[in-house]
Each structure stands twice: as C-alpha cells, then as structure tokens.
## 1
Amino acid sequence: MPDGMGRDLTMKVCGTTCHGSDIVGATGRTREQWTGVVNSMVARGAKATDTELVQIIQYLSANFGPNMAPASAAAKPGAPAGVPARGALGRGPGVLGGGAADSHVVDKAGADRGRQVYIAECITCHGPKARGGGEGLPRAQQGANLIRSLVVLHDRYGDEIGPFLLNGHPLQSGRAASTLTKEQIGDLAHFLHQAVYFTLRGGPDLRIQNVLTGDPKAGQEYFNGAGRCHTCHSPNGDLKGIGAKYDPPTLQTKFLFPRTVGVTRNGARSTPAKPVTVAVTLANGQVVEGVLDKLDDFNVSLRDAQGDYRSFRIAPEVKVVKNDPYAAHVELLDQYTDKNMHDIVAYLETLK
Amino acid sequence: MLAKISICTALIATALAGQSLKPSKLSELPTDTWPMYNGDYSGRRFSPLKKINDTNISSLSFAWIYRANPGPGGGAIKSTPLVIDGVMYFTMPDHVWAIDARTGREIWHFTWPSRGGIHIGNRGLAAYGNWLYFETPDCNLVSLNMKDGKERWHVPICDLDRMYFGSSAPLIVKNHVITGVSGDDLDVPGYIESHDPETGALQWRWYTHPEPGTPEAKTWPSVEAMLHGGGMTWGSTTYDPELNLIYFGTGNPQPVIASKNREGDNLYTECIIALNPDTGKLAWYFQASPHDTHDWDANEAPVLIDGEINGQKRKLLAQASRNGYFFVLDRTNGKNIVTTTFAKANWAKGLDAKGQPIPDPKKMPQLDGALVAPNQAGAANWPPPSFSPATGLFYVNATDAYSVYYLFDASDQPEGWAGNDRGGWSQSTLRAIDYKTGKVKWGHKWEGTGGPRSGVLSTAGNLVFAGDPSNNFVALNATTGVPLWHANLGSGMSNAPITYELDGIQYLVVGAGDSLLGFAMLPK
C-alpha cells in the first residue's frame, strides 16, 4: 500500500478483519468505480464513519486510479526497461492480487501498438476482443479464445507467445510469422495481457450501463402513492435539482441505500447521511439523547447536543430507543419491485 | 512438595512424548485436542466440554494473548487453530505459528517465501503423525515438522498464472491429504485433490465438472464452457468414516455474473458433493444454486448430523448456504429432506422436484440493475456454523441483505467478471435452526449494520459462542439465545472459536485481527 493521506485509515478499516495486506491489486479504477466498491464493502460489514469512507475513496482513487502503475520494488530481471515491477511481497494483477508476483505488467503504449498488430494479423480468427473466432466463421478461421490460452497466461513479455508464433503460426495477412519483429511480439504480448486483465473485477469497460429504463410518470405515482416517499420528501424541497446533482446510477444507489457515499456529477461528495439518534432513559428517569456512536447487547454510547461522549451499560432498568431516519428506506427494500425501482430513478432524474 | 513432584512428572511425560497426532484422535470428540479445522469429521464444531457452562460463564476470565506478526502489511487470523499435545498451530497466508496452548508463548514461526496469489485468508492446517500441512496463496501444499516448523516438502496444487490460489485447510482422511483450490478471477475449472501424506504425491484429482458426454454435461452449452466453468473447492470438507464419503461444497460458475455463454444448470458448480476419498469417484451431488449468477458459492460447511426424522434414525447433512437457503439431505444418497430459507432471499421462483431452488430470470443481474436478496457476500459465507446434538439446533450467523446486481457486458461472450453487485444494506442475526424442519427456533439480532465475519462454536455446557459487529466475543444460552457473557476483543472476531481442556482447565481461544486470545477459569 503506497504512502498517502488515508493509507492508515484504509488499512485499519479494510485490512484488519476482512482483507489482509493485499486490500487492492493493480487494476486501476476510477473514483466512481472505487465509490461503488467501497459502498459494497460497507454493505458487507466494513465499519467506518461517513467522513472516513470519503477519505478511503479519495486514497484509493488517488493511488489506484486508472493510470496508476502498480506499486513497484525492483524491476523483474528480463523485463523491458520502463516496465514497473510489482511489490516485493508480490501481488498479481487481479483486483485482490490474483496471479503471480512476477506476472506480466502491461505497458499501455505497448498495448496500443500491439492492438494494431492484432488487428492486422490476428483479429479475423481470434475475434475483436481476443475471445476466439465465432462459430459463424469457416472452421479454419475459428481461432482459440486467447483470454483462456495457457500460452498467453504463462507468457511474460512475449517469452511464450513469441516462440509459439515463430514456430509457423499462420497470420491473416499471409506473411510468415517469422517476419514479426521482436518489438511487434512484445507489443502483442502487452495487448493480449491487457485483454486478459480487462476481464477481471474492475476492468475499465465493466461499469453500470443505462439505468434509465423506467417510466417517470409511474415513478411519480409510486412516490406519492404506494411508496409514501412524499411523507418525507418533496420534489421542490429536499429533492429539488437532485436529477442534476447525481447521475442515474448514483441516484439509484442513493435512494435505495441512503447511507451509501455518492459522488455528484461535478465530482463533489454527497451530503453526509443523517445520523442515527438514540434516547437512553436511565434508572433514575433521566433521559440522555444524542447521535448514536455504538450500540450492542451490553453498552450504548452517544454524542450529546454539546458534543460530549457519553456511554452507559445496558441493564434491565435502562431503556434505549434508537431512531434511524432512514428506517422507511430499509422497510421499502422488502416491497419494491424492480419496475418500481427503475420508475423512481426515471422520476428523480426529471427533477432538475 | 507433592505439587512439585507432579509438575516434574508432567514435564518428563511431555518431554518424552513430543507433539504427535494419534490417529485415534481423528475419530473422537475434541477434548484435549482440536485435531482438524472443524474439531472433528462431522463439521459440527460442538465440544463435549462443560466445565465452562451456562451457570458459571460469568467467571470466565482472560488468560493470554498472542499477537502474530507476519511482517509488513499485517493480516488477520482467519484460521481455526489446531491443538495437539498442548501446542497450538495456526496460520495466516504464508505463515504458520506454533504457540503454547496454555500460555500463548511462541514456540516457532514459519514463513513461506511467496510467489504471489491472493492473500485474502488462510483457513488453517491439517495434522498427521508428526506432520503439518497447509496451502499457500501461490498454489503449494507444504508439509512442516510439528516439532520445529521445518519444511519437509512442498508440492504444487494449482497454476498461479490461471489465478488459482490456495486458502483452505487440508483434511486428513486415512492416508489422504485432501486439498481444495480457490480462484474466480479467470474462467478456469475447479477441482479437489488427494495427496500422499508422506511424499505429497498426487493420488487423485476430481474436477467439479461432469465428464463430456454424460447426461450431466448437458447442463452446459458446450465442452468449452464446461471446461472453463469454475466451481472452486475452498470450503471445509467433512467425512463419514462408516460410509467412507467426504463432503464439500463447490463455488460459483464462471463467468461469474454474466451467463449468456453458459446456459443450463452448470453442474457441478454450487453443489454439495459426496466423493469416495480413496478413489475420488463421485457418489452423489445436490445443487444448492442451479445456474448461479450471484457469486453464491455453496462452499459453506456441510455439517453431518446423526439425527432423527419422523422417528427414524437418519444420517443427515445440513448446510446454511450463501444463497439464503438451508438444506438438509440424506447423506447416504444426497436426497433432499428439508429446503427452507434462513435469511431474506428473493431470487428463486420455487423449488424443483429435487428440493433445489429454481432461479428467477428476473432476479438475475440486469443492465439496469435487479434488487436482490441476499447480497454477494451472502446470507452465510466461510465463517463456520455449529450444530449441537444437545439442543438439536444448527447455529449460523445469518445476514439479511440487499444489493443491486448489474450486468456490465451483455455480449454473447462474457469473460471473468462481466457484472457485479453495487450498493447495499445488511443486518445480521445469530439464528438457531431446528434441523428437522428448517424452522428458526430463536434468533438474536446483532445491533448495527453489516455482519460479523466470524464463526460459531457450541458446547455441552449449553453455550453457543459467536462474534457481534461491535467486536464482542459473546456467549449465549444455547437453548434460548440469551446473551450471558461477553468480552470486547478490540477488533472483530476473525475466525471461529475453539475450546479444549488441559490440566483440568477448559480454555476458549478466538482470533481477532492479528491476535489470538485465550480465556479460561484459571485457578489461583
């Protein structure tokens, strides 16, 4: 984990119970993608405050963004100059560090050049994404799926792909494979490894497509009818301009799960979620209220209106009443149909 | 004086014996020994010990702590320790420790020089005679000498370049070391292997897909799809010596979320499997999630119950599966007896004639999203459940959860991860399930969102031990679910608790982050 603001926090929240030292691998994710990942982790039990989650997202986006080279130690012997090596402990390219520590590190410029070699010599039989020639092709042109090819997966910088091709593999231009230069083979290797890595979790093409499939009218009816959303929200009040503020995928996540952290269309963080409050009635009848810090079977702690930390042991004579302002959102999860969900997003999208 | 003499005698006895796992310990209920991952072959994680019980648990106190230091980056203890002749053995990825089970004092620490692989967790070791066995993230099965932690040999169990990795605890069955594999990054097939405990040599390998040409192979559109169809074997294995069958679950089909190129039930992914441990031949299978599209590996512990159904003694197998369903099967033949949900699950249209859930296509991942319960982490996961023959209850930390499943690549040829779930809400409850009916007898809801990622232990002392989301190690009355005792571990419980008795003292040991903590009622 590279140094930077938020590193220790990320290690603490993510690395102590669930992940080990390899919280993240080398695959770059955008801020939007990291936000999605972090929200998923919260849903799986990651424990952090709203502010901490934003710091974690910022740390991950800054250090594991799309254009970041993986953390490097000494370059692998034999690797081309300028190719970063992986950390000394060794983590592969998978999002959790799958694969070998010395796995192929893609050079983006090389992969771009390799794509041209691929288009010129390979694409007819092996398909546009190197996933093999389709069954519609003549038998002789149904090339193997190169994402699943052991030659590719065992290759490093062309050391397997090169000898395999030079052994007389046919090229679509008709020229002899032996005329491929060392540079072309190296570039092709970068392109093919990149194509493999792009199928991993967090690959750059893997993102939410279009969620605007609902009917805004039906969404409005649900909002004012069965969903009873209007009892707390109004299109001209708290939701004014919400469709301009968030893109549709974020709207969908935020209205279903209001405690998730969102990024607005202009890159700002979403308004912090409203806290859960708690009222503790002590044995002497005194009531202490505040923002819930922690509640379990044995203790409750809170911050009162003065900002002071208070904690109490739970006993039969102590009464604890919790108030989650988003309780209705949780109850609705059992009731929404997928159509309701898409209709509501379509409706919220119109509130610009 | 008498006390001194008895201490000397005990020291001599220990010095003469050294550490070795007697084969008879493998078929006994765990008392002074915790000889395998689940404590015994049944996978029940039930201890007959009752010195610590529901009447005296409030006097349980802290005994020792051992902070494991694996070096840069740290890590969490997700392994269940073994206890053999007073010594405890446990792992983190690439690391094995031996510590004194009475004091937590380190005896040795072994570090494996890693070549990579996913380091998300290691479940622990197997023991046979004087030898220990564990898997490494970089695809090796390693055998160590129990005495000093020196390596005896290592053999490969998978191909790192295909993004397999090792994480599960091996199981010893007779002269077999059973090893599972992990890895769902690329579209590769799952398998389980048996190795010679003396040499590490491969005895057999069973792939988690049918043989081409068999009726089961028709659950795939093509041999190509089947041979790249996933189904990893990273959960724990249980064993019935009378039937001579091992039981384990298989993981998700590949590609993981998108499924256009794998129409059909996708056998034997997400199945409960029974194999002959001597030959690796399939005895039966039951599919927990036919044609899964939610990453709901059925690798949760297949717990063996010798129970009674309608007054008849039956050999049963129960699983609280990641997909939210609780299954009870006849483990002689895999026939279904009970299928119920033990947590929120909205993805099935009903059950088929075999008692298997029928997936609802509308709740498969969609381009615009489908709201699905449970979420990808599931209603249950790797943290082991427990079954108490004393109460007849199956205990599992169950998670009610929703998330939205998206398809990212709608093409005819998805690969790897062509979708995922996003967002979410979850709430966990320790549930006690009556195995005869699948009905929840009691549930104890844990406050706070998110689930504890920790396992469960039950004992003859009418206790069940579990972790809560506030880092508490909690003991509850096993019959009623009332919490009786707790200790805050400072970090969430990261493995499953174990218990053992040494010198007449019953210990409880639990992992929390990088530390193991021991509890006992110590004499003055």
## 2
Amino acid sequence: MPSDRVVERRRIFQQYKADVKERGKPFYPYAMLHDTIMSLVVVCVIVGLAIVWKYTTPGDHHSTAAGWLGKLYDKPADPGTINFVPRPDWYFYFLFYLLRIFKWPESVVLGTIGIPTICLVLLLSVPFIDVRTERRLSRRPVAVVAAVLVVLSMGILTYKGATAKEALGTELLADVPHWAQKQGFQNNPKAVAGAKIFAVAGCLNCHQYLGVGGGFAGAPNLSAEGAKNKGIAFQIAHLKCPACVNPGSPMPSFAGLGLARLTLLANFLEASKGPK
Amino acid sequence: MATRKLTRSEQVQQTILYPVDWLEERSGLVGGIKYFLFRKVPGDINWFQTLGSATLTAFIVQALTGSILAMYYKPDPNSAYSSIQHITNDIFAGWLVRGMHRWGASVFIILMFMHMGRVFLFGAYKYPRELNWIIGVLLLAMGLGEGFTGYLLPWDQTAYWATVVGININGTAPFLGPFIAQFLQGGTYINADTLSRFYAIHMLMIPGAIFALIGLHLYLVIRLGVTSPPWSKEAAGTGSLVPAGQNGHRSGLTRFRPRKGKAS
C-alpha cells in the first residue's frame, strides 16, 4: 500500500493536471511568444560577443594580440615549448582553482576527482534528497541556503581562478643568481644553466622552489629535491615520462625539451640540496 | 449557387491540405505538432521559464555554426592551426561563425546553469519530474565535456597545454582514470591522433548524445507539463481552484481573457 506521502504527491499532480486543463493557456501563442523573444536575445548576445571579439582585437588578425575578449588565437601548439601556462576556458576556472587549494600531494585527488564527483552525485540525487512536495522558498530554508552557498563558492572559485597569477619565466630568470647562492651551486655551470631552463620552462606554474611558484595539482616543492639523491639518470627519465617513473603522476612529459636541456635540468635538480 | 461555391472552395482546401492529411494518416506527426502547440500551460508562468528554450536556442546555434566550421576545419596537427587562421581571416564571415561558436559555448554553459538554478528554486525537480532533473544534469555534464574537447581544436599553445594537464588530471582518478586518459589521448601520450579523436568526440559522440537527451528532456516536459511559480497565488496544483468564468483578472505572463459568450 502506498505511503501517505506517495498518495499526497499523486493527488497534487492530479490536481495540477486538472488546474492546467481548467485554467491554463495554450502554449501557442502565449508562452511561445516569450520563448521566441528570449531566444532572439540569446542569438543577438552571441553575435554581439563575436563582433566585439573581432573588432576590439588590434592589428592584423594573424597576430596573437588580445582584444577585450582575449586573443583570437595563441601561438601554434608546440609540444617542445619551454614555457607554457595550463589555463582552461573560464567556465572551468572553478575546477582549476580547486587544484590550487588542494596543493599537497596526498590531498590533490580530492581536488581533481573527489569534490567534483561528490558534487555531481549530490546534484543527481537532489530529487531523492528533497522528497517533500513543498515548493515555496520560504518553506525550504535548507534548499535556499544550499543554493546560495553553491553560487557563492562557484563565484569565488571562478574569480580566484581568473585572477590567479602565473609565474612569468622572464621575471623568474632574475631569481636564478639568488637560487644559486642559497643552494650553493654558483660554481656549477650546468646547474646554473639548468636553473635558467627551470625558470622559463613553466615548472613553477605547478612546483614551488624557494618560496616562489605554483602549488598546483599537488606538484611537490622542489627546493630540496637533490637531497633525495635520486641521480641524474632518474631525473631525466622522470622528466621524459613522469607517469612511467611515478605512476599516477599528472605532470606532463617534458621530453620535448631535448636531452641536452633535460640533462642540465637534472643537474640543477640534483644540485638543489635545500637552502643553506 | 452557394452550395456549389462552397464545394469548390472545399475542393481547393482539400487539394491544399492533401499533403498534410497524407502525412498525418501515415505518421500522426501533424496531430503531434498540434498537441505540442496547443497544449495547456499554467497561466502564471514567468519569464524565468524561458531559460530552457533559450538554452536550446544556444545549442542550435552551436550545432549550426559547428557544422559550418567543420566544412573548413582540418583536424590534423599540421594544418589545424592554419585552418583556424584561414577561417578567421579569409573565409567570408568566417570570423563571425567562429566567434559565434566560441562565445556561444560560454552562453550555452551559462544558460544551462541558470536554467538549472531556476528549476531548483521553483522546486520543479520534484515528483513526478525527478527523471527530467537527472537528464538535465547529464546534459550539463555533456555540455562541459563539449567545452573541454572543443578547447583543444584550435591547436594553439593555450589549447594544447590546458588539454595536456586536463587529460593528466583525468588520469589521476582511481581505477578508471588511466583508462579514461588513454581513451582521450588515443595512446599512452598525447599524440597526433589525439586531435582527431577530440574532434570526433566533440562533433559526433557528445552532440549525438546531447540531441538524444534533449529529445527525452522535451518529451518529459510536454508529458508532465510546466510548473507554476511556487509563489503564485493561483499555482496549478495547490487546489485553489478559481471557479470558471472568474478567471479574467489573473496576473502572469500569458494573460488569457476568455471571450464572452464562450463556455469556458
């Protein structure tokens, strides 16, 4: 026998159908008029954005200059690049920033997979968590508070993601002599050359080194990487294919830098025994 | 005379309507469209309830502009970037089509979230519409998947490195992660096949699923009806039935004044 709740909600739906039949309006033309107006607004906004995107972009449009809405395109993809900024489209900034919050290797899986999965499951189960028939907002305080919190947190994460500063290779190059002095590898030309590659190759977009850079996606602090004495060969193999050496690592391959640069980088990492 | 003229006009009418009748007799489509257009919706529905059809419009814009882009785009690492430049600078109105696709994606995703927020605040996911909420959440996930796979296609630096990191992050998921990463890349690393794979996912697999889910979504909307705003004094289903004949003073978007003398 169905429970009282089931009987009640069935009765309400039957009442709904009777009410609509009795006092409803035909979809055409009443509701359809407003749907059409709204759809026209949407198309106009999209066309408007496309126009602003093109006409605020300075110069000839073969360059990578940015207009009000950003670049028409960036430089061509180059897997062997020595500087890159991993930045998704703006509507993924909230996920992107989660990875900066969970920066410790042990917790990074929470930011990458854990929280998004939990949110998706919660979202799917909304109709099964809230099974009351009440629809008035004044009688649904939990739903209202939840909605406000979700909007606030997604807004803040998106904002923080949009304003998060990437480490700029050219600025970091100025830090190299300071690093060499602190780590004591001034007299090791290979390590100094490696430090320069390290500064411009985008490593510090994720990793941290002597207080600068990253904290993204669980990348470890490399200030004392050399103290682990893993050896040049290990460092090169790891840079070529991080996930082969360290299963599950989200770090991309840097094989594109070429063996000569990787050797210098490995020398730099091994010389980083921690600040003195 | 009069009867004869009437017969003639009836004949003309029949000739004109013959294809419609032919179609109706064989498919029932005409009746279906009539039902769709003239079905009753609550009289107090609201501008917020146009967000769903606005989302559909944004998706149709994406489908149309995407089809045009597909005529010129080359999903191969050697020519993808130059084909995007060609579309933007050489093709007639290519910049407009690409710009509409690029920014239509953002509008589509914003509208999906706004539509979901409206459904949530109206409590419109409640019995018997639970299944439609689930389909909507799946559509949201698919839409974000379109955003992720489409971002790589210009094959520029931003696209490439965001995708490398995105795939690697997928790969960190327990159990399924490595398989998902390998499926997306078409191999253990990102390679030349990754781009065409993303292209196939972006323009065939996910859009196909989205079309099917939108069909189901609309079928359920038509079958179960649209909810009244919860604050409405005459919300359908609250049992405050206004006696027939007194329904001319109702507020709401689709104000409907019954004609005098007509039984309502």
